[in-house]
Amino acid sequence: MSKYAEIVNNKPKLLILVVVGVISSLSIPVLLPHFDHGTHIYHLFMHTGGIILSVFLTVLGINAYYKMRTKKLAITSIAFFVFAVAELVSLLDATKHHYYELPAYEVAHILMIAMVGIFAYGIFRSD
């Protein structure tokens, strides 16, 4: 078994690799300059979590597509990739503002992250 197949087929290892990769690539240019901006860093962490989950699901979707070769899996992989790009754009946009209120804007973000988290939970779940 190749190293790639070993990592992709072991979901916990893949998740750890994605977490380390995303956080290490975003920490210096995006996250570290905002650590002293109070609660603003939590908003940035929320977007980072969304990027982590969507990249993880994109990789799993691509792997499943290569195993099954169905259009549904290809479309699902593309959808998760688009969500990852949208979260990255939102993260970069959020670095321009240093204050947020909790109303609908934050609740909508939290619900979108929860949706992707439920997808990830469904993948980890073995019935």
Description:
This protein has 127 residues and is mainly alpha-helical. The chain has one domain. The chain contains 5 helices and no strands. Helix 2 runs antiparallel to helix 3. The radius of gyration is 16 Å and the shape is globular. The model has no long low-confidence stretch (mean pLDDT 85).
* Poorly predicted parts: none
Give the helix/strand class: mainly alpha
Domain unit count? 1
Q: Outline, from the CA principal axes? A: globular
Percent helix range: over 70%
Q: Average the pLDDT over all residues and give the rounded result.
A: 85
Number of helices: 5
Can you lay out the helices and strands and say which pair or pack?
Elements: H1 3-9, H2 11-31, H3 40-68, H4 71-94, H5 104-124
Helix pairs in contact: 2-3, 3-4, 3-5
Provide the descriptors you would attach to this structure in a database record.
mainly alpha; 127 residues
